[in-house]
Amino acid sequence: MASRFLLELNAPASGFTESFLLGNGSFGASVLGKPGTESFALNLDTLWSGGPLGDEPGPSPAHLLQPLRDAIAAGDFKRADAISRDMQGPGWTQSYQPLGTLKLTYAAAAEISGYNCCLDLAKAEARATYDSENGSVQLRSLVSAPAGVLVATIAGPGILAFVEMALAFDTPHEKAEIAVAEADGIKWMTVTGRVPKTVLPNYVDDEPAIVYADDMPDASGTVAAGMGYAVVAALHQDAAGSARLIVSAESGFRGYDQRPSADVAALAKAAKDRVTAALAQPIQRLVEDHREDYSSYFDRMDFDLSQSPVHDGLDPRRAELLYHYGRYLMISSSRPGTQPTNLQGIWNVDVRPAWSANYTININTEMNYWPAEMTGLGDLAAPLHQFVAEAAGARGQVAARHYYGARGATIHHNTDIWHFSAPVHGDPSWANWASGLIWLAVQLNSRLDYYPEDDAFLRTIALPVWREAVPFALDMLVEDQDGALVASPSTSPENQFFAADGAKVAVSAGSAMDQEMIRELLEIFVGFATADDAALKAEARAALAKLKIPHIDATGALSEWSVDVTSAEIGHRHLSHLFGLHPGRRITAQTTPEAFSGVRKALDVRLANGSGHTGWSQAWILCQAARLRDTARADKAIHGLLNDLAFKSLMVLHPHSGWEEGNVFQIDGNFGAVAGMTELLVQSRKGQIIILPTLPASWPTGSARNIRTVGGHSVDLAWKGGALASLTIRGGRAETIEVELPTSELAQMMMRMAGVLAVEGKVCRIELQGEKALNFQF
Asked: Same structural domain for residues 262 and 365?
């Protein structure tokens, strides 16, 4: 039913966080649905403050690394924190910038009734409809990837013919120029300007926080910082009471290491050329091309809870809508050739957005792409893959050498379009976390998990990155008092512990997260290394043999740090120390039962003390619950996301009472929710698929189609009354795998079916033969 994919509201949005988000991966718009006057807040994924970076300024602090390690080894954690601050860089990441807001007045003010606005997730278009004393009105908006433009159509026979439509533009930037013209019945508006050359993060009190450049472009039209931009809009109204608006935009971004363009005339021409080409097409052709392009992604899989009733206040249909909204956002914000999704995807209305709307890589950027492969959207992770490959080059190498005297490359806790890699100012708990590239390098392996025969990706992306991340990881390891290897320095992202005198500190050695990530990185590299990597492979293999494993503390919980200390925030939002269960792969109930129990205990402690108070944190809890097979906790996490941590637009939020905005949008929670809900239904690892491992009680009946699994396979399944009813497995390649079913009785039933080789308990060994499907009915 089409209504399964409609996100409907009965009132216009009051602001950005209630708006409908539209995008084609690069060009984004948020729409409010206000009768008579629609607002389109516009964005381009490449529009950032700043410019390309040079060498790290000032003398290298690498000589402080050994004193820092000595302080850690001596247990002098206050001194370790102090030295870490001395190793921080002088700068900050730059900020993702808005283009401004285009306003379209299309109908006279009037009493209205029957108002409805919806975001159609199956068609990727927003619609606002209402009735007035003069007749009905409908405004439909979309952002087309094939045409590269925003398209809005207005229909209202009997009313619009009497209204002179008008365009206006609200710019957030200094010295923007707005030009209007009319030709051949088309109203044109062109907006040009430059974004700031520097913008400080919104949490920094220094002044000036926003600085615009006053230099002129050089002979080639480029500047050192503060790129140019252009927005071009064309409005055509006919006598029959309908109209169309076509909008495009262009930024001066030319590459992370290239001076940006401020030749706004050239930028405006590029944008106008797209608008002109779109105007030459029939509107229906623009709409059909858009739908065909979008549906080629959205229709790859499905998830249906429409037959499940409301259960203890949990409405499965809202969970389903949240799921599809997450898929919609990924298709709309990340496409091959675009930039990766930032903290707000590609949508932002502030010159100083929350946390600069940058790439925060101690959880948020990685979470953005957790659902990509499993939902059949792995090709949409290409922007992240390309970004990581580039960042592991010159910028990451400069950071490793300058700050640590280390081999390879590193990125600290956040970065931007210019590949900023240094430790920023601030508390070492976040500023000095140096494992960003390590995590991103580990995440690259997801592509090879799901597409093991993608040799081009292995050769051109993964191996080059691993050859930079592995040497840095090895250079961060030192022997502890027991002779085991631990990362030093090391932090657990954004959390602290108490020093002996009660002071809050962050820097130690061998945090659980660092140990888990380094282990995964080294194991992955050893598995894929070529003959050319023989020396580095041997070094990695030797380190693995001595690498310390996170320990279980006296309470039975997996410890966050390698030393027995007390967390300064027991209910911290990050679940960094649980990395080994999710998103990592080391910890399972079968292979590491003590660590598995330790994760459960550690999560209990976090939640009992208030963790999960942000949307992305609750999404990570959902992912942990899925792998712990904790159905009650999964239900509670979904309930928390929908009832407490999402705006009515279903944008997942991050509460921040200390800021004027209060609750801010962070897109990672939307994506993490999709990943977690998918793993409630199907989990996989090499040679293994688990069916309905953590089916929530609130989802008694449902189905899913084409969930992708490790190995390149896919699964369709349906369940009724909480029991598996049907299962289809399509092999991506010939392989014998194990399939774990919810009960041993179901496994015995499968024994009689074609393709099943053996059964032991709940596990069936089945033989997959390429694309041939195995169908099982229960």
From this structure: no
Contact 451, 461 (CB under 8 A): no
**286 and 345 housed in the same domain:** no
Residue 57 domain-assigned (yes or no): no
- Helices 436-450 and 382-391, interaxial angle, to 10°? 140
Residue at token pair 């990727």: 124
Beta bridge partners of 702: 719
- Is there a domain that residue 360 lies in? yes
Q: Is residue 689 part of a domain?
A: no
Residue 526 CB coordination number (10 Å): 18
Rg (CA), the chain: 27
Contacts of 73 (CB under 8 A, 6+ apart): 478, 480, 481, 488, 509
Neighbours of 197 (CB within 10 A): 20
Q: Same domain, yes or no, for 29 and 88?
A: no
Q: Say whether both 237 and 115 belong to one domain.
A: yes
269 and 227 share one domain: yes
Q: What is the pTM of this model?
A: 0.97
DSSP helix/strand/coil, 743: coil
Confidence of residue 162 (pLDDT cuts 50, 70, 90): low
Residue 618 amino acid letter: Q
- C-alpha count within 13 angstroms, C-beta hemisphere, residue 210: 16
By DSSP bridging, strand 688-691 and strand 735-740 are parallel
Q: Which of 104-118, 486-500, 732-746 has the lowest mean pLDDT?
A: 104-118
**Contact between residue 227 and residue 51 where contact means Cβ atoms under 8 Å apart:** yes
The helix-helix angle for 615-628 and 668-681 (nearest 10°) equals: 10
C-alpha to C-alpha distance for 503 and 521, rounded to whole angstroms: 33
User: Are 80 and 103 within 8 A, CB to CB?
Assistant: no
Q: Which residues contact 95 (CB under 8 A, 6 or more apart)?
A: 48, 49, 199, 201, 351, 352, 353, 356, 357, 358, 416
What distance in Å separates the CA atoms of residue 474 and residue 467, rounded to the nearest whole number? 11
Calpha distance 304→719 (Å, rounded):
11
8 A C-beta contact, residue 30 and residue 667: no
- Model confidence at 134, pLDDT cuts 50, 70, 90, reads confident
Distance CA 726, CA 778 (A): 6
Domain boundary among 236, 267, 299: 299
- Distance in angstroms (rounded) separating the CA atoms of residues 330 and 374: 13
Residue 161 and residue 294 in one domain = yes
Report helix angle 668-681 to 316-333, nearest 10.
Answer: 120
403 within 8 A of 475, measured Cβ to Cβ: no
| Termini Cα distance of the chain | 26
Q: In angstroms, rounded to a whole number, what is the distance separating the alpha carbons of residues 483 and 342?
A: 40
Tokens found for residue 137: 């009105």
Q: What is the pLDDT of residue 1?
A: 46
The domain in which residue 149 lies consists of 2-49+96-299
Residue 714 lies in a domain: yes
For the chain, the maximum distance between any two Cα atoms, rounded to a whole number of angstroms, is 84
| CATH number of the domain enclosing 226 | 2.70.98.50
For 717-756, write each residue's pLDDT tens digit: 999 999 999 999 999 999 999 999 999 999 999 888 888 9
Do residues 101 and 81 both lie within one domain? no
Asked if 341 and 328 count as a contact pair (C-beta separation under 8 A), the reply is no
> Residue 320 belongs to a domain with what CATH number?
1.50.10.10
Q: Give the CATH number for residue 763.
A: 2.60.40.1180
Query: In terms of domains, do 204 and 353 share one?
Result: no
Q: Tens of pLDDT along 369-383?
A: 999 999 999 999 999
pLDDT digits (tens, 9 = 90+) for 328-351: 999 999 999 999 999 999 999 999
Triad 485, 581, 452: Cα angle to 5°? 90
Total domains, the chain: 3
548, 549, 553, 557: CA torsion to nearest 10? 160
Strands 96-105 and 37-48: antiparallel
